[in-house]
Design brief:
This protein is of the alpha/beta class. Helices cover 33% and strands 24% of the residues. The chain has 17 helices and 22 strands. The longest helix has 24 residues. 42% of the residues are buried.
Length: 524
């Protein structure tokens, strides 16, 4: 498997991937056009914020299966198109929060004490002590917009400066804010009462230009603005006008709408703008953590193990993870059986979770079922793209949960239909999954290997004839279950575990045998 590292990441992460058998090419200076030229050769792509993984890149990347963002923000990746293509996007949340928070604090102090300007002046041979009078942080109000990982770390540290801390974040609880001494307020209150405002929200449609003319108008005169989140959250034109009109006393910017900013960006000409080249996360510690986090997920992904930080997969809480993984395997196998039995034609899927599993976030299990169903008829459907593909094909997916269960602590029931219907029931004991029922027939087996599932008339000699046929093709029967329903006679189900897959011819001949109604091969 080939990995392209398109932006610099820690050497340890590169070594780790190589040691785990991945072929890693490091090309950290390539342009967008060069990336378009070479990306088709790679199975994985690792970027930071420089490289833009746009739709055209993903379209060219025929083999690409996973994109790793060594950092948090994924606004440089077209995640929805990657999802449509079944490409997993992983990031490294949290790994650089402390570094970004420390940088923010550095920017705040530099800004209010004019440290970079003073530094320049001294180096130019001047000694302008009166020019560089600043303000104290003590007793001032800091407004934090976005109390996520970084905003939280900033709040935690700024308490020591004896600041009052206001926070605006509609998605966090008052308890979280309180735990770092911040008061949760609405945006207007924050804007009106803060002496320094620092931005820590992700860049989304909602947050783009969330600080613009109207918002500057509401702020205190002489407010300071810090943006170490993403360029464009603060409207650069409006910020420039607010600084020039002295509404804003100064701004510290680590990020820009365009990076690097145009040389003639008017903000760069202002004496009271302190700026750094998007280095909030650039510490040895952060680079090591985010690089390793992404590298571990990529290695896990190619080993067929679940990834920890997928952006376009439902998140599984750590305490649910080991419980749900066997059910993910079970559901995929149930999907395979259902698809095989219905010859790939179905338009309705129903999954019911019973018992303990009904209390967990089972989205990933449903996705696995859809993947098992669809992968038999379409190529390349994976756990990322399965719900989208199902929707595109007009397949109706229903999920229900019943917290009570009788015999088994957790049970999954699946019904797939297209007029014809198949019903399956399964459970897991620890890591071992078992299929308990196919339609009305009790089976109870560990689904692993080559199977023929067949309906037959319950008459003497049928099983013997099947054994003879398979024997004549040198196919060994490793196991057999006859799921009998009701009494003697009628139509019954036969499940054969084979050492080798049967050919089309064997299946055709089997159906031609007296009393055999159908025969379906499935590899589980
Ligand atoms: P996070 O997801 O942990 O936190 C973001 C917070 O913003 C969340 O609590 C969320 O509820 C809140 N939020 C979302 N939309 C909001 C809205 N409309 N109004 C108010 N709050 C809103 O993210 P994080 O790890 O703390 O990162 C914060 C920002 O910093 C991101 O933009 C990230 O890309 C950026 N970042 C920059 C650097 C750098 O080098 N400068 C490094 C790391 C992260």
């Amino acid at each position: 498997m080939k990995v392209l590292v398109a932006d610099p990441i820690a050497e340890e992460a590169i070594d780790f991937m190589r040691k785990n058998g991945l072929e890693v090419d490091v090309k950290t200076d390539i342009s967008h056009e060069e990336l378009l030229d070479i990306v088709r050769d790679y199975d994985a792509l690792i970027v930071r914020s420089r490289t833009k993984v746009t739709r055209d890149v993903i379209e060219r990347a025929e083999k690409l299966k996973i994109i790793g963002r060594a950092g948090v923000g994924v606004d440089n990746i077209d995640v929805s198109f990657a999802t449509e293509r079944g490409i997993v996007v992983v990031n490294a949340p949290g790994g650089n929060s402390v570094s970004a928070a420390e940088h923010t604090i550095g920017l705040i102090i530099s800004l209010v004490r004019k440290i970079p300007q003073a530094d320049r002046s001294v180096k130019e041979g001047k000694w302008e002590r009166k020019k560089f009078v600043g303000i104290e942080l003590r007793g001032k109000t800091l407004g934090i917009i976005g109390l996520g990982r970084i905003g939280y770390e900033v709040a935690k540290r700024m308490r020591c400066f004896e600041m009052n801390i206001l926070a605006y974040d509609p998605y966090v609880s008052e308890e979280r804010a309180k735990s770092v001494g911040a008061k949760l307020v609405d945006l207007e209150e924050l804007l009106k009462n803060s002496d320094i405002i620092t931005i820590h929200v992700p860049k989304t449609k909602e947050t783009e230009k969330m600080i613009s003319y109207r918002e500057f108008e509401m702020m205190k005169d002489g407010v300071y603005i810090v943006n170490a989140a993403r360029g464009g959250i603060v409207d650069e034109r409006a910020l420039y006008d607010a600084i020039v009109s002295s509404k804003v006393a100064g701004a510290a910017l680590d990020v820009y709408e365009r990076e690097p900013p145009d040389k003639d960006n008017p903000l760069l000409k202002l004496e009271n703008v302190v700026t750094t080249p998007h280095i909030g996360a650039s510490t040895r510690e952060a680079q090591m953590i985010v690089g390793m986090t992404v590298a571990e997920d990529i290695v896990n992904f190619f080993k067929g193990l679940p990834v920890k930080n997928a952006v376009n997969l439902p998140s599984v809480a750590p305490e649910d993870y080991s419980y749900l993984m066997p059910f993910v395997e079970l559901a995929e196998k149930m999907g395979k059986i259902a698809c095989a039995r219905l010859n790939g034609v179905f338009n309705r899927v129903k999954i019911t979770f019973r018992g303990e599993i009904a209390r967990r976030n089972t989205e990933i299990v449903t996705r696995a079922l859809l993947m098992g169903l669809l992968n038999q008829i379409l190529s390349g459907v994976n756990i990322v793209s399965a719900p989208i593909v199902a929707k595109e094909r007009g397949i109706v997916v229903e999920q229900s949960r019943i917290e009570e269960s009788d015999i088994y602590p957790s049970l999954i029931e699946v019904t797939v239909s297209n007029g014809k219907e198949i019903y399956l029931e399964g459970t897991c004991f620890g890591e071992e999954c078992r299929i308990l029922k196919i339609d009305k027939y009790k089976v109870d087996f560990v689904p692993k290997g080559h199977y023929i599932i067949s309906l037959h008339e319950d008459k003497p000699g049928v099983i013997g004839r099947v054994g003879t046929l398979l024997g004549s093709y040198n196919i060994n029967i490793a196991g057999m279950i006859v799921g009998r329903h009701g009494g003697k006679g009628g139509i019954q189900l036969m499940l054969l575990l084979l050492d080798d897959p049967p050919s089309e011819e064997v299946l055709r001949k089997m159906v031609e045998l007296e009393s055999i109604i159908d025969a379906t091969y499935v590899y589980l």
